[in-house]
Amino acid sequence: MSRISTKKFGRTKSPIEHPITSDWDLALTHEDYNKLLEGFRPRDMDNKWSCVTDTPDAKGNTVVHVSRSGPGPTYMHIAVEAGNPHETEGDNWGKITSITWNPKSLGYLGEQVTEEEAKQEAINFSRGLMGCKMSNAPTLYVYEY
Asked: CA-to-CA distance for 74 and 66, rounded, in angstroms?
């Protein structure tokens, strides 16, 4: 099985098993983009999640990898596109362009995770772990991480 390297913390994670990818056009503020770049690294073993972001490419585009702390599978990838670095004001600076997830990994009691549920989980991870406002995103339910 191949492994992906998450450059920020020098850790490796397994690729997503049975991946499903869906397009997404969710606008981001410059502030939220920067928080996604920072990711989330748990301070202790009580927090079971980590969000590690690849080093952005020349255009500022990147991928956020959400996974359980320690070794194990990646649960989702959130593809992020940067906006114009000279115009950082407003609610529509960059955007999330797609999400990839394992439909079985986030489900409860073996249920399949739908596209809507996976997107809501990505919003919850972004808000709860990385401190993003995600002002352009809906709130269907909130889970405290």
From this structure: 6
Pick the closest to residue 101 from 68, 125, 66, 126 (CA basis): 66
Is residue 136 assigned to a domain? no
Asked whether residue 142 is domain-assigned, the answer is no
pTM: 0.83
Q: Which of 29-33, 35-39, 101-105 has the lowest mean pLDDT?
A: 101-105
First to last CA, the chain: 30
When divided into structural domains, the chain yields a total of: 1
Spatial separation of the C-alpha atoms in residues 65 and 53, rounded to whole Å: 6
